[in-house]
Each structure stands twice: as structure tokens, then as C-alpha cells.
Design a protein that fits this description.
By secondary structure, the protein is of the alpha+beta class. The chain is built from 18 helices and 23 strands. It folds into 2 domains: 243 residues, 4-Layer Sandwich (Glutamine Phosphoribosylpyrophosphate, subunit 1, domain 1); 218 residues, Rossmann fold. Helix 4 packs across helix 5, helix 5 packs across helix 6 and helix 9 packs across helix 10. Its EC number is 2.4.2.14.
Length: 481
């Protein structure tokens, strides 16, 4: 997509939302996945059950595009699960849109998954050798095949057996005609929460979706936990006793909506603290602070408050730029950035500007924004990043570049500064990140996954890494830490 080419950012993973026990479950699920739209814009889908039969619809594009006509009106039931997707494993096509729907010996099965299974290729290869025929290229289908091949008759036992065979990141919603099963991986890499709406139960990747449907937050789903919801209510059990919380740090830095809470920590508040930590670590004399919209605005406010430098809207985002409105050519990419982002000349002209951003991936977009500010008359542009340098690929559901494409893996900070054309450049330290998020955990790294910064992954990594020839002994950094 054009947007991906010109906008050099980490791409969101996916979002899941489910309702059990409400007459308007499909409609509520529509509102829920709409609230999670920021987590994936390639496809959207909803599957509903009336206790006997499934009805479902999946489509490409945004939620409003996938359900652009009367598709929602055809969904019936008191149980529903929904999904918004950004491709991280499998191709971008309708066959991979979720929820995935299957028929097997015990009835119907629907799955919605946020995350990425690091051993999916190995498990899939084994299943294919045993006769399984896959219909998609999504790693989520592996889970369905494991459930279908289980020797257990009870769906709960089949799911538990399947979860013990997969590795990596998963926030899973599994639905039969009469039950909803919710599961989170032993490291809790992705956020997942439970709520109540009257007598109904609601589950969501982010708490912001609860506010949209009027649900009351109950609690987080715990790492390694499986929750079963049926006509008898909600019950929980541990699938894995070997749990070690490692929530993705970028949920706080970039991915989650500012009005969401993760582990009881408000995302906007955490980002403001990241900005304050950044101000303490990397102050600079300047006239104005601005943030790259939207995810960096909170950190920019925190930086401004800590330094006393005024915060201004020096950069404005155009929210009406289509995702695929033009096929890119090299000479049009810089114009594409300007179509999505504009500098406010009267704010930055003649000023020393501190530009706050949440990350630098390849560095190309950062360079274009710096130049944009200079073209608008900025006298100096000082770039401050509210995360440590991203030096390693993510294998847990975030679409990062290969390590060879990550600028921080190839250049030091001074070389990066020269590349983007800034007067100065500084990143938040790992200690500053952990202080800023405000997590208080007995687990390593205060319960964060820091793999993209440190190369120390919380699980084994099974995938071969492409384009890693430049990195000596890189395989050693992929062993379980």
C-alpha cells in the first residue's frame, strides 16, 4: 500500500473483540472492532452464533468498507467475535481475513487471533505430513487444525491441548455454537481484557472499546490463562504454569489508543511520562515542542511540561488521505508524506523546534519530516524519540522490517542524525522506558518485552531470519533469555 511505502512506521498487529450473552452481539461487536480500527486496516470480520448456527461476514479494507452495505443486518445471535487485521503472517487476501470459520466433527468453530506464532511453520509442516489440508496462509489456521485433530471431545480440553503445542504471541477468541473461549499466551505479549455489559460478557484487545459499547471493565486476562464463557457463566483455568509477563513495550509507546488502559496503566499518561523521562535524559535549548501526530503527541506534551518549552501543533495530519489512492513512484513518495502531514509555518518559522516521535524504523520518513519543518522556516530541528533505538525484528505480530533494513542496526546515533538531517538526535533509554510506563512487576524487565531493542526474546525463535548476514552470531541472540 502507498501508505506503507511513504509512512515509515511500525505497523499495527490485529484487534479482537467478542460478546457473549447479548441479543445485539453482532452490532456491539461491529462497534467494538470499529474502536480497534487503529490495530489493523486490511480486513475486518464478524462471526455470530444463535446457539445453533453461525452467520458471518468478512471483507477487505476498513470496518466501514467491509460492512459497507447491509452485511451486518444478516448476522444473528447472542454470541459474536470480531477481528481487524494487519498482515503479519500470511498474505493480504480475503481467505486470510478473520474470524476464520471451520466445520469439524464436533460442529462449527470460529477463531480470531492477535499475535504471531513463532513455531507455526514447523507445526503446519508436521500437520501437512499427517494429512491436514490448509485453506489459508495464516498462522491462525494451525490452531484450528490442532483443535480438530485433538482426541478430546470437550472443546475446552481440545483447546488446552492445542495451546500447549504453539509458541509465540496469541490473544485468542474461539467460538463454537454455544461457547466462547478466550486465551492469552504465557508471556501475555498482547493486551486482552474482560468486561461486563449487564449480564453479558465482553472481551477486547483494548479497554477503549468497552467505553464505546458501554461495558464495565472487569480485569485483564492473565498470561497463560484460558477463560470459558457459556450459559453457566465464566470460569477460568491456567493452561501454562510457566508464565512470565512480557507485554509488548510498543503497546505503551505507539500501538494502543491513548484512552486505553493496559494493566491498569493509562496509555496517554504513560506516554506523557515517557516524554518527561526523555526531557530529563536529553534536554535541549529550543523555542517550541511539537509531536508527530497522532501517537507522539502525548510524549511531546510530557516533554514540554518537563522542560517548560511551549508545546504547539507544529505538524498537522491529514485524516482524509486514502490508503491506496495512488501507485507510488520514487519521485512521488516525498509528496505523499506532505499529503499526509503538513508543517504549520506560523508555528515553526524562525524557531528552534524539538520534534518528538515515538520511533525511527528506516529513517526515511523522519528525514522527510525534518526537511518539511526546515522548508517551513524552522531555524533548528532537534529530534527526540520516546523509545530506544529499534535494532531487531519482532516475531510476535508486529510488522517490523528485517534487521538489515532497520537504520539503528546499521548506524550509530550520530550517523542517524546525519541521515535524517537533524541538528541533534536522542533516544529514550531502556531504563527511562521502564520508568516511564510505570509498570511495577517482579518479572524480568518490569514485565516488558524489549526484544526489538535488545535482541533478547522471551520465547524461542523458530523462524529463519532473512537478510541477517551482516549480524555475526545473531542466532545466539534468538535463544531463550
Amino acid at each position: 500500500m502507498f501508505d506503507d511505502v511513504i509512512w515509515d512506521k511500525l505497523n499495527e498487529e490485529c484487534g479482537v473483540f467478542g460478546v457473549f450473552g447479548h441479543a445485539d452481539a453482532p452490532q456491539l461487536t461491529y462497534y467494538g472492532i470499529h474502536a480497534l480500527q487503529h490495530r489493523g486496516q486490511e480486513s475486518a470480520g464478524i462471526c455470530a452464533s444463535d446457539g445453533k448456527n453461525f452467520s458471518y461476514h468478512r471483507g477487505m479494507g476498513l470496518v466501514t468498507e467491509a460492512f459497507g452495505n447491509d452485511e451486518l443486518d444478516h448476522l444473528r445471535g447472542h454470541i459474536a467475535i470480531g477481528h481487524v487485521r494487519y498482515t503479519t503472517a500470511g498474505e493480504s487476501k480475503i481467505e486470510n481475513a478473520q474470524p476464520l470459520i471451520f466445520k469439524y466433527s464436533h460442529g462449527n468453530l470460529a477463531l480470531a487471533h492477535n499475535g504471531n506464532l513463532v513455531n507455526a511453520k514447523q507445526v503446519r509442516h508436521q500437520l501437512e505430513r499427517q494429512g491436514s489440508i490448509f485453506q489459508t496462509t495464516s498462522d491462525t489456521e494451525v490452531v484450528a487444525h490442532l483443535i480438530a485433530r485433538s482426541g478430546y471431545d470437550k472443546i475446552e480440553e481440545a483447546v488446552k491441548e492445542s495451546l500447549r503445542m504453539i509458541k509465540g504471541a496469541y490473544a485468542l477468541l474461539i467460538m463454537t455454537e454455544k461457547k466462547m473461549i478466550v486465551a492469552l499466551d504465557p508471556n501475555g505479549l498482547r493486551p486482552l481484557s474482560l468486561a461486563k455489559l449487564g449480564d453479558a460478557y465482553v472481551v477486547s484487545s483494548e479497554t477503549c472499546a468497552f467505553d464505546i459499547v458501554g461495558a464495565t471493565y472487569l480485569r485483564e486476562v492473565e498470561p497463560g490463562e484460558m477463560v470459558v464463557i457459556d450459559e453457566d457463566g465464566l470460569r477460568s483455568e491456567r493452561v501454562s504454569g510457566n508464565t512470565q509477563r512480557a507485554i509488548c513495550s510498543f503497546e505503551y509507546i505507539y500501538f494502543a489508543r491513548p484512552d486505553s488502559d493496559i494493566d491498569g496503566i493509562n496509555v496517554h499518561t504513560a506516554r506523557k511520562r515517557l516524554g518527561r523521562e526523555l526531557a530529563a535524559e536529553a534536554p535541549v535549548e529550543a523555542d517550541v515542542v511539537t509531536g508527530v501526530p497522532d501517537s507522539s503527541i502525548s510524549a511531546a506534551i510530557g516533554y514540554a511540561e518537563a522542560t517548560g518549552i511551549p508545546y504547539e501543533l507544529g505538524l498537522i495530519k491529514n485524516r482524509y488521505v486514502g490508503r491506496t489512492f495512488i501507485q507510488p513512484s520514487q519521485e512521488l513518495r516525498a509528496k505523499g508524506v506532505r499529503m499526509k502531514l503538513s508543517a504549520v509555518r506560523k508555528v515553526v518559522e524562525g524557531k528552534r523546534v524539538v520534534m518528538i516521535d515515538d520511533s525511527i524504523v528506516r529513517g526515511t520518513t523522519s528525514g522527510r519530516i525534518v526537511q518539511m519543518l526546515r522548508d517551513a522556516g524552522a531555524k533548528e530541528v532537534h529530534v527526540r524519540i520516546s523509545s530506544p533505538p529499534v535494532m531487531n525484528s519482532c516475531f510476535y505480530g508486529i510488522d517490523t522490517s528485517t534487521r538489515a533494513e532497520l537504520i539503528a542496526a546499521k548506524k550509530n546515533i550520530e550517523e542517524m542524525r546525519q541521515f535524517i538531517g537533524a541538528d541533534s538526535l536522542a533516544f529514550l533509554s531502556i531504563d527511562g522506558l521502564m520508568r516511564g510506563t510505570g509498570r511495577n512487576s517482579d518479572h524480568p524487565n518490569n514485565g516488558h518485552c524489549l526484544a526489538c531493542f535488545t535482541g533478547q526474546y522471551p520465547t524461542e525463535i523458530y523462524e529463519e531470519i532473512e537478510d541477517e548476514s551482516e549480524s555475526e552470531n545473531h542466532c545466539e541472540s534468538l535463544s531463550k533469555s
